[in-house]
């Protein structure tokens, strides 16, 4: 009774901010959905065409190609950073505790996390410069170690460009996973690890049976955030290759933005981003459903 | 015996991690070195050689040619303005659903996660149209609004998560002493939340500083351009295929504020990111 009285009257604090968020975001989003039903060059009169734009994009092979890239990008943007970040974090935790101390952790954290802080417009430029065919750092390095025959115009060939974008993504995202896992490990009781070490468990066994399982919540969040990030990736592609050469590195988002500003109809662009948002919404919805069902299964087991 | 072999393997692992971290830093190290080399030096030395003498003139030209001072001011105005809007919108919402235990809490949290995970591209074009319709296209003030609101979704999520740990007895005690909810928010909750508010502000600041899409869409004039975008033009635009040492100097200038924020507030930033995932 007293609780319900106390919790009354917070509406004044909740509704103004909440309505700004909801009205703005869903207003803009519905507007976008509306445009996706029009044949419209972006100015002047528009014509209602229903779901024609969606039919057009589903028949476009460049659309499917951008999504096949998106599926590929999940690996360097989400899976590999999660795995490498996890292994590095566990290794740091094991190795730096005790006599190496926090100074080294801070060096490692700076190294891995810095790519998250530099503007992508800038780091894209740095990588372009490193991967430049004539006199770029990578080619000079290959030359110096006697692998000069492997020199390439890395960003001008479709295959190597896709690999370059992927490595760039891995460089960008590993720090996020690393930092989250490192902080998750700080929750662990060090005495459990000590005990397992005394019992002769090696590094891999500890990862398999102790550190790994205890990081399950972090792994879930990192994988979810990064997978969504991979599906909607824009800046790393846009600033390294612009989707080229010959559309070999497009993502759904760069393809959509190109359609808005390079194409004849913004209706097509809107249909593309609407599709992207719906797919991400579906991924989120399914994930939460699975989490809910599993939670229910676990609680009915007990 | 086994103890020694264990700490030996431990020091190998430690060294390995540090080596990998340094490899991760190489692109940044190379750029900083290159930015300090004269064009002669740049073309003859290796990528990891130290500059023979420091060529500050690489940086000087940005203060003349593309008027970087103006762009720095633009970036600060946009980034700070949007952070302010995000906090003003988000803090009372987080207060109501955390300290106030408002029954809409699950809805609010789900909505804020949904909004910050959905692609900005799906609202970008209508925002662009809105700027055209209202005659605000190209205005820095207009850009601050959507940036601030999008940031507030993230702020609600993080603030509400952390604020939930404030015991409700604190608010109750203050109310028994005659404080109203407004005073509780300002005088009890805000002081307790200052570290988190600072963290959220820093994260949003870095995010806004590095923002590319809306800035690209809404600010066509070079007068109102932000630092990262003006700098990326060095490569494509007016300096088309500029010499490497100038591209490097430009990169260093554009990344500097975010880097400084990171180096000084590393712990705070990392705490914020991990608070968002727990």
Summarize the SSE layout with pairings.
The complex is a heterodimer of chains A (302) and B (278).
Chain A lengths: L1 H5 L4 H25 L2 E2 L7 E2 L3 H7 L2 H36 L5 H16 L2 H12 L5 H8 L13 H28 L4 H9 L4 H12 L1 H16 L3 H6 L11 H11 L3 H36 L1
Antiparallel strand pairs in A: 1-2
Helix pairs in contact in A: 2-14, 3-14, 4-8, 4-10, 4-11, 5-8, 8-11, 13-14
Chain B lengths: L1 H34 L3 H6 L12 H8 L3 H31 L6 H13 L3 H13 L6 H24 L4 H9 L4 H29 L3 H6 L8 H10 L7 H21 L1 H10 L3
Helix pairs in contact in B: 1-12, 4-7, 4-9, 5-7, 7-9, 8-9, 9-13, 11-12
Overview of the molecule:
- The complex is a heterodimer of chains A (302) and B (278).
- The mean pLDDT of chain A is 85.
- In chain A, 75% of the residues lie in helices and 1% in strands.
- A two-stranded antiparallel ribbon of chain A has the order 1-2.
- Chain A is built from 14 helices and 2 strands, in the order ααββαααααααααααα.
- The radius of gyration of chain A is 24 Å and the shape is globular.
- Chain B has 278 residues and is mainly alpha-helical.
- Helix content of chain B is 77%, strand content 0%.
- Chain B has helices at 2-35, 39-44, 57-64, 68-98, 105-117, 121-133, 140-163, 168-176, 181-209, 213-218, 227-236, 244-264, 266-275.
- The two termini of chain B are 40 Å apart.
- The relative contact order of chain B is 0.13.
- The model of chain B has no long low-confidence stretch (mean pLDDT 84).
- The chains are: A mainly alpha (302), B mainly alpha (278).
């Amino acid at each position: 009774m007293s609780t319900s009285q106390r919790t009354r009257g917070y509406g004044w604090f909740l509704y103004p901010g909440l309505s700004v968020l909801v009205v703005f975001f869903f207003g803009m989003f519905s507007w976008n959905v509306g445009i996706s039903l029009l044949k419209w060059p972006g100015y002047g009169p528009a014509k209602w065409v229903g779901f024609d734009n969606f039919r057009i994009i589903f028949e476009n092979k460049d659309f499917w190609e951008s999504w096949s890239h998106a599926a590929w990008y999940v690996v360097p943007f989400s899976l590999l950073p999660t795995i490498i970040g996890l292994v590095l974090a566990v290794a740091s935790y094991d190795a730096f505790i005790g006599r190496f101390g926090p100074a080294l952790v801070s060096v490692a954290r700076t190294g891995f996390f810095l790519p998250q802080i530099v503007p992508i417009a800038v780091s894209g430029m740095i990588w372009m410069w490193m991967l430049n065919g004539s006199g770029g750092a990578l080619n000079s390095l290959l030359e110096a170690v006697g692998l000069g025959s492997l020199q390439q115009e890395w960003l001008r060939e479709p295959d190597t460009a896709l690999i370059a974008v992927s490595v760039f993504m891995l460089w960008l995202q590993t720090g996020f996973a690393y930092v989250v896992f490192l902080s998750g490990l700080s929750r662990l009781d060090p005495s459990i690890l000590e005990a397992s070490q005394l019992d002769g468990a090696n590094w891999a066994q500890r990862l398999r049976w102790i550190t790994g399982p205890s990081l399950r919540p972090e792994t879930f969040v990192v994988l979810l955030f990064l997978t969504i990030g991979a599906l909607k990736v824009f800046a790393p592609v846009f600033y390294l290759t612009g989707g080229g050469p010959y559309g070999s590195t497009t993502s759904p988002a760069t393809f959509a933005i190109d359609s808005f500003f390079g194409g004849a109809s913004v209706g097509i662009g809107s249909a593309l981003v609407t599709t992207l948002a719906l797919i991400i919404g579906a991924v989120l919805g399914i994930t939460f459903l699975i989490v809910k069902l599993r939670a229910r299964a676990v609680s009915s087991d007990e | 015996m086994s103890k020694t072999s264990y700490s030996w393997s431990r020091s190998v692992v430690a060294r390995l991690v540090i080596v990998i971290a340094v490899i991760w830093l190489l692109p940044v190290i190379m750029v900083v070195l290159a930015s300090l080399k004269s064009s002669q030096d740049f073309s003859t030395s290796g990528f990891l050689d130290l500059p023979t003498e420091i060529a500050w003139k690489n940086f000087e030209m940005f203060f003349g040619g593309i008027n970087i001072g103006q762009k720095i001011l633009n970036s600060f105005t946009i980034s700070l303005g949007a952070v302010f809007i995000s906090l003003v919108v988000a803090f009372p919402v987080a207060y109501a659903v955390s300290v106030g235990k408002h029954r809409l809490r699950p809805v609010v949290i789900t909505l804020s996660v949904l909004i910050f995970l959905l692609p900005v591209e799906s609202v970008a074009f209508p925002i662009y149209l809105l700027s055209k319709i209202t005659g605000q296209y190209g205005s820095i003030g207009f850009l601050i609004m959507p940036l601030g609101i999008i940031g507030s979704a993230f702020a609600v999520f993080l603030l509400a998560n952390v604020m939930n740990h404030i015991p409700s007895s604190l608010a109750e005690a203050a109310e028994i002493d005659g404080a109203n909810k407004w005073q509780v928010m300002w005088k009890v909750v805000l002081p307790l939340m200052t570290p988190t508010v600072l963290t959220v502000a820093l994260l949003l600041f870095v995010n806004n500083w590095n923002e590319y899409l809306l800035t690209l869409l809404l600010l066509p004039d070079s007068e109102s351009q932000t630092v990262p975008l003006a700098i990326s033009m060095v490569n494509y635009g007016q300096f088309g295929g500029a010499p490497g040492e100038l591209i490097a100097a430009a990169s260093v200038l554009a990344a500097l504020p975010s880097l400084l924020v990171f180096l000084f507030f590393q712990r705070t930033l990392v705490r914020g990111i991990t608070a968002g995932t727990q």
